[in-house]
Amino acid sequence: MKTMRLEKAEDGFAILTLDAEGSMNVVNDGFIADMTQATRQIAQDDAIKGVILTSGKKSFMAGADLKQLVNGFDTLTPLEAYAFSKRATDMHRAIEQSGKPWVAAINGLALGGGFELALACHHRILVDDAKATVGLPEVTVGLLPGSGGTVRLGIIAGMKTALDLLLTGRAVAPAEALKLGIVDQVVPEAELLDTARTWLASGPDPVKPWDVKGWVPPQKKGLTVPEDSAAYMMATGGLAKSGYNQPAPLAILNSLFQALQLPFDKALAVEGKYFAKLLTDPVARNIIRTTFISKLAAEKGARRPAGYPRFEARKVGVLGAGMMGAGIAYVAANAGIDVVLIDRDVPTAQRGKDYSAKVLDKLVEKGKVTRDKADAVLARIVPTDDFGMLQGCDLVVEAVFEDTAIKAETTKKAEAVLPPEAIFASNTSTLPISQLALASRSPDQFIGLHFFSPVDRMGLVEVIMGKQTSKETLAKGLDFIAQLRKTPIVVNDSRGFYTSRVFQMLIHEGAAMLAEGVPPAVIENAAKAVGMPVGPLALLDELTLDLPLKIVDQAIAEEGEAYTPPAGVAVMRKMKDEIGRSSRKTGGAFYDYPEGGKKHLWKGLVEHFPVNDSWDIEELKKRFLFAQAMETARCLEEGVLETPQDADLGAIYGWGFPTWTGGTISYIDTIGIGSFVGEADILAQRYGPRFLPSAWLREKASRGETFYTAESADEAKEPMPA
User: Fold this and answer.
1) Would you please indicate which residues are annotated as catalytic (active-site) residues?
2) Is this prediction's pTM over 0.85?
3) Dihedral pair phi/psi, residue 52, rounded to 5°
4) How many Cβ atoms are within 10 Å of 135's Cβ, its own excluded?
5) What angle do CA 219, 221, 230 make, to 5 degrees?
6) What is the Cα Rg of the chain in Å?
7) Are the C-beta atoms of 280 and 82 separated by less than 8 Å?
8) Tell me: the pLDDT tens digits for 665-716?
9) CA atoms within 13 A on the CB side of 99
């Protein structure tokens, strides 16, 4: 067997060790075949009295191979997907009904299919290690546990605990797992196998409770029990927050509901049918492809040019100690890099360092880092106003005010003391990198590294290639991002690059709707209904109207009549210049912020933007999605973007485009380019040329093309565990 080995012992307690090729054990066709064979051998061998199931790796089992699952949509029929699920379900039932007691000696992380395997055993012993988390995270990839996970967890842990773990997908550490009853014992690593043998020696019953004749499901009375009925009603109401865009939570709720009422094997069949439905749905494909496969590939260097030695930054300069600079300084120091944090004076630079102190203090309070480690991170940050301190820096990240002249002056001051080989990066979000590089002594070593705020919590970095940026500089920039444990996307230079350019479509579309007479609450709720985390008017309040208007004014000054202002500019100018409301910082724009109370939409909006009832909620939702997707397509056409993977990663992790879509380009592919073009033409007729497909996109539609090719799902070199 390629994925495991079976060893017999004189005491009759066999050890079945999971040890597949690669760094982790994963559930795939090969594993299922081997486990089925091993279980059959164990059941037929009278010399084996019990089985210890453990792992030969640092983790127990990570779950299903997502590279295999991502191909479920468009390649499997629901019947074939059900058969796939049933093979794993039957494998677990064979363990339960082998006539031998099985104990899972869980020596490390056990998630998804790995924990489902443990649940099928008769006893579970977990090593006492904070990294040895257990759980069923399938909801996070648009699926449910498809081989008995919802059924067994519901029966073992009860409805309330099962709902929490299944709908959040969260993994729990050993102490909580024991408290919740999803493992039976927690012991030190050195005692794991001996404790398993001791349990087997106690003569445990190899028959699971649900296989005992006369067993009654926990909620046999269904919704006639008021407490159960109320709990399901509350859970159903909670799902409405997602707008039902993601089918997995509702499928989990339904599967669990029936699992606690039906005979065991019938409940497994119901779960399998829900799994098959989800596996053949594009939502699961979209989520898996972007948030796991493409993300891992990007972090492993999918866009890194080959042929350049690995770069490691040891000393980094950060110019500007504002919110962005302070955050960049923190993540660099946290990665073990020495940081020189520069601002106009030492007190200002110190306030930037104080940000790191606050972040670390919170982590210490939560027990996530020790005080000694926090102090070591802080010691790596040197706040100063002396550019001379940049001597010896491998890389500098400039994060000063978004003004070309200020950035140019800062660049020259820094490069006057930097070593010749140092990389200079600008954290600009909108200013063209090629233009900023004009102030550099070495434009080929100048690159854009656009971090997102707050830097310590946002994982994406948009890497911008200027016209003269060399491939070696790109390789070094990507290596630096890997040091910071961030996710990179690579884009080419243009106004607003990719993320800022497309994100603006969301806020401008919301402002345009306001001018059309759509009630402001409807605008906000339509955006949230498609899965945007915040409505566009609320976003504008946080951004300030000054920022998008400044971007527009810069474009008008540089491009003149060739530039077409976005649809929401008139509303923003009216709010700022005529009404005098521009941001939350200045007291409120579209919202009011009463002291001690919750924010609410400004009642005066109706006076300045009268409402009507000519809107359609479904069309509003479509406009938000299409506006962003169409602009992304233009970025691909213009060469700002080079891959659909970068587009989708940037959309989801950059500004919160709905995860269920897989990103802006996956959204177009899911609809189909032909259908997308047809629907966009209708929107263009009603609302303007921003929705009008280009000749390039029409040509792709006429050829029946997709943005993602058949090879796109095979980016990651290793199996991707759930």
Assistant:
1) 450
2) yes
3) -100, 115
4) 25
5) 75
6) 28
7) no
8) 999 999 999 999 999 999 999 999 999 999 999 999 999 999 998 665 454 4
9) 10
